[in-house]
Amino acid sequence: MLNLLEVISNTTCPEVSIGKHCFAPYECSLREKCWGFLPENSIFDLRGGKTKQFSLYERGIISISDIPNDVPLSREQQIQRECVITGTTHVEKEEIRLFLDMLKYPLYYLDFETMGPAIPIYDGTRPYQTIPFQFSLHVVENDGAEPVHHSFLADGIDDPRPQLLHELQRLLGSEGSIIAYNSGFEEGVLKELVEAFPEYAYWLEGILTRMVDLLLPFSNFLYYHASQKDTASLKKVLPAITGRGYEELGIGDGMDASIAYERIIYSDATQEEIASVRADLLKYCKLDTEGMIWIVERLRHLCQ
Ligand code: SF4
User: Fold this and answer.
1) pLDDT at 281
2) CA-closest candidate to residue 214, choices 290, 152, 150, 284
């Protein structure tokens, strides 16, 4: 307590080294400031737990490129070090080819946007339940065909799920791969939807057998570029592999999308604001599925 009072009465910040305490019990809001001295590709960008990162830091090693050869590294960490030191991209062509061979036309690139209201809005839902309100779907009928875009964005205050399910069933056909990025999320959303609307249970069984996760080549380090740091998220992978990103969009991630949607639906937004947010939501969700098409094309090109 005495220490705390001393710190509060000081006019300058105390000198505290970064450490595991910066994440306990939650990530500290001053992380950007205190951790800002770290170089690009620091050891804190290594895949894996914090224990190795802090043991290297305590040895005075802060750059991935400075990790000595005698430090045991996992396969993923070795790939990271190699890419940082050589400036090259890691590509495992054979494994990527096997992944691409799993894709069966027509290809359906699917992405959901969801919200999780703390206070349930719709009958039969619970606090924080994931409620999809939007999807983007690109369909590529066959090799070389132009992608056709479909989208759904709920309007009004009614439960968006019945209409969303109806549209999905109409558009997803009965054969061909359904590709999602981190497909476990899309699958979870679909399963929860069908719990609420069991008349779709038989349809869902067929859908789940067709799902393919485009995250896998990246989470398994079959492709890795140092700019991804320690993540295989679409927001990092898309610019790393295609050079294109999300910079010019009014909505930058799923959380933004959810907040924006709830704001226009459940507050007194003007018609102008509603139109502008809806346009941003449609653009953002479309880029997620379009981005997946570009990624698959790029992977194919790399494997030629
Ligand atoms: S980030 Fe927070 S916890 Fe970590 S050293 Fe800075 S102020 Fe302390």
Assistant:
1) 94
2) 290
